[in-house]
Amino acid sequence: MTIEAIQEELIDEFSMFDDWMQRYEYMIELGKSLPLIDENLKTDDKLIKGCQSKVWLNSEMKNGKIIFTADSDAIITKGIIAVLVRVFSNQKPQAILDANTDFIDEIGLKEHLSPTRANGLVSMIKQMKMYALAYQTQLNN
Amino acid sequence: MSFDIQKIRKDFPILSRKVNGYPLVYLDNAATSQKPQQVIDCIVDYYSNYNANIHRGVHTLSQEATDAYESARKKIQTHFNAKEAYEIIFTAGTTHGINLVANGFSEILKKGDEIIVSAMEHHSNIVPWQMLCEKTGAILKVIPMNEEGVLVFSEYEKLLSKKTKLVFVNHISNALGTINPIVEIIEKAHEVGAAVLVDGAQACSHIKPDLQRLDVDFYVTSAHKMCGPTGVGILYMKEEWGNKLPPYQGGGEMIAEVTFEKTTYAGLPHKFEAGTPNICGGIAFGAAIDYLNTIGFEAIEKHENELLKYATEKLLKIDGLKIYGTGPDKTSVVSFNIEGIHPYDIGAIVDKLGIAVRTGHHCAQPIMDFYKIPGTVRASFAFYNTLEEVDALVTAVKKAKMMLS
Ligand SMILES: Cc1ncc(COP(=O)(O)O)c(C=O)c1O
C-alpha cells in the first residue's frame, strides 16, 4: 500500500469516532499492536530526544524498504508511534521523504503536533525522515 | 474579611473559560498563577496613563512612573518586612536573582571553599552554582533527602564547616511541596559564618516570609507565581551584602559618575539594576501583593490546607496511587503516580477533560532519580481553587486510569 492509501485508511477509521475518548481508546489499542523494537536495541542512541516519555525507534532496510520498530514507556505515545509506523514502515526511503503529514490533523491528533506538548510527535516524524534520508543517500552513492 | 471563594473566583477572568469543552480547572499554580482583574487593570492603567522611563526625566509622567515604581518597592519591603526599601532589588525573576548572587560570589570565593545546596532544588538553579564552582575552584556539597521528600537535617549539620561560604536552599520544593526548615538552616549556617540564599519562588504565594526575623542574607522570588506578571521578581539582600557584592551588569542606572578612567557605582539598589527595568512589571507586582493581602495569608493558608487535605485523602483512595512528598510540612502540591501508568498518559487524558496539571520531572531531575521514576503528575492548588475542582481532578484521574490500564 502507498503512504497516501494508508493515510486515507486511517482517516476513515478515525472518522468513525465522534468523541476524543473513543479516539484515544482506539489509539491505545493501536499502541498494543506496535511492532516492538528488540529489547537489546533499546539503547540510548535509539532514544528520540524531545519526548516527555521515552521513545525508542529502530530502522532497518529490507528489500529497498525501511522497516521501523519502536517502543515507548507511555501508552498514548505508543499509540501515536503505532500510527506513524503503520504509515511509514515498509516504504521506500524516497516515499517517506516525500510524504506529508496532514493526516495527523485529520485524525484528530493535531494537538500532539504542538512542540509544547513535549510528547515528541514532531521529533518522531523528524527522526523517521532522517533515517529515510540516510538510507536514500546510501542508495544514491 | 471572610473568605468568599465565589467572589474571589470572579476576580480572575481566565477561570471562567472553557478548555476542550469543559470548564477550566487550573491546577498548575506552581508553574505560574493566574492574574486577578486588579493586576490586569494596573497594567492597563500604567500603559494608558503614565508610561515613561523612570529616574531620568523631570517631566510629570516620568515622576509619576518613578513614584509608582518606588512605591511598589516600598510595598514589597513592607510585605516581606525588609529593613530598608533599598535592600529590595528588582530582577527579572528568581532565576535572575540567583545568577546575580552567584556572580557576586565569584569574586568572593576561593579554591577549596564550599557551597551547600539541597537535593530538592529546581535543577536549572543548580547550574549557576556548578558554574561558580568551576570558575573559583569551590566545592559543591548536597544535602540529601529521605523517602518522605524531607531534607535530612543531621546530614546538613555534618556538611557545615568553616569552609562553608554559602548555603542555597529552596523555601518550598516545587516538585514535592515540602516546606524546608529554613529558620534552622539559616541559624546553623550563620554559626559557621556562611551566608544563606533562599529560593522563595514556590513559597510566597502561600506564606508571607518575615525576612528580618528569618535573618536570611538573600531571598529571591518571582511575581508571576504570586498573581503578578511574568518577567519580574525581587532579590532581597541584606545591606552589608549589597555593599560587599560587585555589580552584575554594567549599564545605565547603576552608576553615579562615569569618566573614561573610572566609574563610581551608584548605591543600593541601583548598583544591581542596570538599564531600564520592567517598570510596569514592578508596579503590577505591587498591585499583586496588595491583592493577596486583601485576601490575607491566614485565609489563603487555611483554604489551601483544606484543599490539600481533601485532595490527598481522595486521591489516595485510588488503587495504586502513590504520592511523592509526604512530609509533615507541605503546601498545596500533590505530586503522584499510579502504578504501571506513565505520568504523561494521565496528564494527556485529564487535559482532555479541561484539567491543567503538570507532568514530567518538574525541573527537579535529581528528585526523580532519587525515586527512580520518570516523573510525576503534579496538581498544585491556589486559594482560588475549590473542593469541587478537586473532585473534578479525582474523577478525571479515575477515568484516565480506566482508559489506560
Ligand atoms: C523552586 C523554584 N525556583 C526557581 C524557579 C524559577 O523561577 P523563574 O522561572 O520565575 O525565574 C521556579 C519556577 O518554576 C521554582 O519553582
TrEMBL record, chain A:
Species the sequence originates in: Aequorivita aquimaris
Domain (Fe-S metabolism associated) ranges: 12-130
Cited Pfam families: SufE (PF02657)
Superkingdom of origin: Bacteria
Protein name: Fe-S metabolism protein SufE
Database matches in Gene3D superfamilies: 3.90.1010.10
Family: Belongs to the SufE family.
InterPro entries to which the protein is assigned, alphabetical: Fe-S_metab-assoc_dom (IPR003808)
Automatic annotation (TrEMBL), chain B:
Listed InterPro entries: Aminotrans_V_dom, Aminotrans_V_PyrdxlP_BS, Cys_dSase_SufS, Cysteine_dSase, PyrdxlP-dep_Trfase, PyrdxlP-dep_Trfase_major, PyrdxlP-dep_Trfase_small
A GO MF label: pyridoxal phosphate binding
Database matches in SUPFAM superfamilies: PLP-dependent transferases (SSF53383)
Keyword annotations: Pyridoxal phosphate, Transferase
One record GO biological process: cysteine metabolic process
A Pfam family annotated for this UniProt entry: Aminotran_5
Cofactor: pyridoxal 5'-phosphate
EC numbers on record: 2.8.1.7
Top-level class of the enzyme under EC nomenclature: transferase
Domain Aminotransferase class V: 25-393
NCBIfam families in the cross-refs: sufS (TIGR01979)
Function: Catalyzes the removal of elemental sulfur and selenium atoms from L-cysteine, L-cystine, L-selenocysteine, and L-selenocystine to produce L-alanine.
Sequence similarity: Belongs to the class-V pyridoxal-phosphate-dependent aminotransferase family. Csd subfamily.
Name by which UniProt lists this protein: Cysteine desulfurase
